[in-house]
Amino acid sequence: MSRARRDLIVVGASAGGVEALQSLVAALPAHLPATVLVVLHVPPAGADALAPILDRAGPLPVRRAEHGAPLEPGQVLVARPDHHLLVVGDAVALSRGPRENGHRPAVDVLFRSAARARGPRVIGVVLSGALDDGAAGSVAVTARGGLALAQDPREAMHPGMPLACARATGAEVLPVAALADRLVRLVGEEVDVGAVPAPSELMQRETAVADMDPREMETVARPGTPSGFSCPDCHGVLWQIDEGSLRRFRCRVGHAWSVDSLLAEHGHAIEGALWMALRSLEEKAALSAQLADGAREAGRELTAEQFAAQARETHRAAELIRRMLAESPAVLLTGDSLVEPGRTG
Predict the structure, then answer these.
(1) Cα–Cα–Cα angle for 3, 37, 253, rounded to 5 degrees
(2) CA distance 266 to 332
(3) Choosing from 7, 108, 133, 260, which is the catalytic residue?
(4) Known catalytic residue at 266
(5) Which of 40, 82, 96, 266 has its CA 20 to 30 A from that of 48?
(6) What is the rounded CA–CA span in Å between residue 115 and residue 207?
(7) Which residues are CB-contacts of 81 (< 8 A; sequence separation ≥ 6)?
């Protein structure tokens, strides 16, 4: 029997997550016998300010993750903008691998790589965020004998992520104020490393893709089955991956999408297409009206009326699209899910 202690905490957050992270870090003790790794979804060009913010919040030292930095207890490492944060052996790695759910860094990448490297020694914590990021990563953590915790969705500024995590894994749900106490009790617990399943082939391959491993990137066969849907990032074919109650998608070059994130991205694409259509119709109407005026000035009344009728018809079509943009349900414009977070339908 191979024994070890729980000594790695991975935390994921998105919208509304800064406040939750500050509260969590503030309540952790200075001599925590575990490493804490944090991913917050931020824009690629966003300010790299999270580490200083969290460093001021509590007694644990917080710093930006550096490629190859060892996992040392009593410290918090924060993912950098536009870089995935992974666990590789006893250290962290930074990667500019394919985005997952439109994000880099991505919560699922961190959780999955931690599960592969540390198995039951990992505790995953999902905080405030929209949609269902972190659910697939939490499934990976629990599949390897780790534990999943989630912020109480009723408390979270955006409940989607913790709710999806809880539904996908049965994660323990607690207010942020109680999460720190729970973590303190859990870290240091002995676990039997040899009693848990080895990392699945899917977990190995997906982590390798996130780390831009050329052997995996060049492999022709992809996990899952061709879906008939296209990747919003590169427009390649998406392969469907069913993992327990979760349905996910990944393209040939590695972009990954949950059901909710794929719906959201297509919603944004539809809105963009509608605005382009509205612009084209308005330009056509304006041009038709201009040609009608010119025909009247030239005394060609029949031609002028034809152009004027075309302008009126085009304005009516444009008005239909304006009403659609103004009144369409959120599922069209924001991609709000039609299924429960973490469910396949």
Answers:
(1) 100
(2) 8
(3) 133
(4) no
(5) 266
(6) 10
(7) 42, 43, 44, 45, 46, 47, 48, 105
Cα 86 from Cα 114, distance rounded (Å): 7
Residue 14 known to be catalytic: yes
Catalytic residue among 7, 23, 41, 158: 41
Instruction: Name the token pair of 295.
Output: 């025909």
- Tokens representing residue 113 in the block: 């790589």
Q: How far apart are CA 229 and CA 248, in angstroms?
A: 12
Report the percentage of the chain scoring pLDDT > 70: 94
Say if CB 79 and CB 107 are below 8 A apart.
Answer: no
Band (pLDDT 50/70/90 cuts) for residue 9 is very high
Spatial CA neighbour of 138 closest among 152, 123, 150, 148: 148
How does strand 225-230 pair with strand 190-192?
Answer: unpaired
Query: At what angle are helices 135-143 and 107-118 packed, to 10 degrees?
Result: 10
**Any idea where the domains of the chain sit in the sequence?**
3-195, 220-345
Catalytic residue of the set 14, 113, 128, 258: 14
Residue 269 has pLDDT above 90, yes or no: no
Provide the CA 307 distance to its chain's centre, in angstroms: 49
Count Cα atoms within 13 angstroms, Cβ side, for 68. Answer: 0
Quick check: is 103 catalytic? no
Cβ pair 6, 188 in contact under 8 A: yes
Mean pLDDT of all residues in 56-80: 97
Fold designation for 3-195: Rossmann fold (3.40.50)
Does the pLDDT value for residue 341 go beyond 70?
no
- 247-to-63, 225, 262 alpha-carbon distances in Å: 35, 12, 11
**Residue 332: per-residue pLDDT:** 52
Tokens matching residue 110: 């961190």
Average pLDDT for the chain: 92
Range 44-52 average pLDDT: 87
Are the beta carbons of 324 and 273 closer than 8 angstroms?
no
The token pair that represents 191 in the structure block: 């676990």
Residues 148 and 234: their CA atoms lie apart, in Å, by 32
